[in-house]
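Worked example 2:
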Amino acid sequence: MARKPPRRTAERILEVSLELFNRFGEPNVSTTLISAELGISPGNLYYHYPAKEELINALFQRFERALDQILGAADGVRNVEDAWFFFHSLFETTWSYRFLYRDLNDLLSKNRLLEKQFQEVLQRKTRAVRFLLAGMSRSGAVDIDAREVEPTANCMVVVLTYWLSFEYVRNPRHALEPDHAQQALLRGARHVLNLLAPYLEANQRQHLLQLSGAYGSAD
C-alpha cells in the first residue's frame, strides 16, 4: 500500500486544528489535544509544525487567500443585491476562521507577524469597501458625498472586524457554535448594509428591506 505524501498529513493537521480552534478557542487547544484528535504522535505533529504559532500562521495564510478572492470582487459591486452577496461572502469566510477573530487581541499580543498581517488585512478591506462604494455610486445605487466615503468605509470595516465579538457578547455560550452560523451571518450582513441605508437610492433602499425580509428574521 502506497504511503500518503507528507503534505497530506500537514493538511490534515491544519484541518483538525482549525476545527478545534473554532470550537474551543485557540488558547484552550494544545498541540497535545490536536495530536490526540488526529491519532498521531506529538513528534509527528512537530515534524510538520514545530510550534503552535506556525499552525496559526499557516491557517491565517489560508484565510488571507480566501479573503482576497472575495475582496477582489469589490469593484464589480453595482447594487444592493451585489453588496448583500459580497458582504455575506466575507462574513462566511470570517466564520470559517472565526477563532482568529474570537481571540484576536490575545493572538496579536503574542504573534508579531500576525499583528502586521492583520493590519494589512484591515487596509485591504478598507480599500475594497471604497471600491464598492465607488462602483455603487457610478451605477446610481448610492448618493454619497466624497467626504463621507472614508469614514463610512472605516465604519463598515469596524463591523466586519468586530461582528463576531458582538455575537459572542450577545450569547457567550452558544454564539460561535455551527448551529448559530446562519443567523449570525444574516445579522452581520444587515449590520454592515444598514450603514449604507442613508445613501441608498429609494428603490435600492426598498430592495434592501425586501432582501432582509426574504431571508427571515435574524434577531
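DSSP finds eleven helices and no strands in the chain. The radius of gyration is 20 Å.
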